[in-house]
Design goal:
disordered C terminus; alpha+beta; nine-stranded mixed sheet; elongated
């Protein structure tokens, strides 16, 4: 007897550690007073919405009812708009945040190292704002007539993974999260290198990072005041204009950070522009310091990608819990795409992979069979459909 092929959704769900998910459900008592639509069912529905780019509860319900014959095989019992809406508002988003952390551990075991020769973990820290309609999301007030939420990410340059994420209101400054969030402190291990933009310039925080053995690379403001203690290393690259050891001279700044720092100046000939970087790393070459900051652009590309390819700009609920739930499931879906790409050495981009899944998420095809295809040739793997007779 020929073995029945699972759907692509089945293959994606296998990547989730089901036992860990059930532990999270028990911890937050998420299934109390629940008849059939438990946390796992909600995860299935939200993954389907992410993969299929569904915009509304009605669209999700209609699309799933078209595939009702496949519900049993993916573990779905039933779906109603009202039930999903209630679950989005009531079931704690922390369940999906917890499973994100478990998926991240699995992804890090297969992701490639960053492109630099050094072995230190390399991160970028930044935030992006998502605008919301103030009349629909009154809790997200940003300005007098605008609403917004701010997503803060610690971006791992190895594998382009979000190692840390938190959501705040749009008015929260990036530096506040950097200085106060304990989970971010836990993620930044000693010997890590952190590239950040000028919004994070705070010598009190830099002293804490330095004491923990974390290196930072930040673009220096033009009005920075310091005293040159001597040249750090001889200049060996044509783009490097300076490489100096410096001491802060402003009393307030010097009190916060009394240790020596390093300033690297770079002239970008193609842009006819001169920029300087501040760092507490005295080991790496000046050119590597400049390249580390240049790699920070990858987090900007990451922000652009998730806004264009994940459903994190239009939401299925209006409460903070509903918004956070959808964002965490969206990031789980990003981790799944990353895991499949690196584990199987998929030749194309994550964007290409997501486009393929959008078309075949509930088709009965082997996942391994489609990885040699692309979005233009994916129809070869789809199950043949019998031609309907018109008369």
């Amino acid at each position: 007897m020929q073995r029945q092929v699972n759907t692509i959704m089945n293959e994606l769900l296998k990547i989730f550690p089901r036992y860990e998910f059930e532990k999270l459900e028990n911890r937050y008592a998420s299934n109390r007073y629940t008849k059939y639509f438990d946390g796992w069912q909600q995860l299935i529905v939200l993954l389907f919405a992410q993969a299929g780019q569904k915009d509304s509860l009605r669209e999700i319900e209609t699309s799933l009812r078209v595939h009702q014959a496949k519900w049993y095989h993916i573990g779905l019992a039933n779906i109603r708009r009202s039930t999903l809406a209630d679950a989005m508002n009531r079931r704690s988003y922390e369940i999906f945040e917890g499973i994100f952390d478990k998926l991240l551990e699995r992804c890090k075991s297969v992701t490639p190292q960053h492109k630099f020769r050094f072995k230190n973990p390399l991160y970028s820290l930044d935030a992006t704002t998502i605008e919301l309609c103030l009349s629909i999301f009154p809790w997200a007030r940003f300005r007098q007539r605008k609403g917004a939420i701010k997503l803060h990410y610690l971006f791992d340059q190895s594998g382009s993974l979000p190692s840390f994420m938190t959501m705040t209101d749009g008015k929260c400054h990036e530096l506040r999260v950097a200085k106060e969030d304990e989970k971010l402190d836990f993620a930044l291990l000693p010997d890590s290198i952190l590239s950040i933009d000028r919004a994070y310039l705070d010598f009190d925080w830099f002293r804490i990072l330095n004491q923990r053995g974390v290196y930072f690379v930040i673009r220096l403001k033009m009005n920075a005041v310091f005293e040159i203690a001597g040249q750090h290393k001889e200049l060996t690259h044509k783009t490097i204009v300076r490489d100096d050891k410096v001491i802060l001279t402003v009393p307030k700044s010097k009190t916060k950070y009394p240790e020596p720092l390093r300033v690297v100046g770079v002239y970008l000939e193609e842009e006819d522009r001169y920029i300087e970087f501040l760092t507490n790393n005295f080991t790496l070459s000046a050119k590597t310091i400049a390249d580390i900051y240049k790699a920070r652009w990858n987090i900007e590309l990451f922000f652009k990608w998730i806004k264009q390819n994940l459903k994190i700009k239009s939401f299925l609920g209006t409460s903070p819990n509903a918004v956070l739930t959808q964002i965490w499931v969206a990031m789980c879906y990003y981790l799944i795409l990353s895991y499949i790409k690196y584990q199987t050495k998929f030749a194309h981009s994550i964007t290409e992979l997501s486009r393929m899944f959008r078309e075949i998420i509930l088709d009965r095809v082997n996942l391994i069979d489609i990885l040699s295809l692309n979005s233009n040739t994916i129809k070869r793997a789809r199950s043949p459909v019998s031609q309907l007779a018109l008369f």
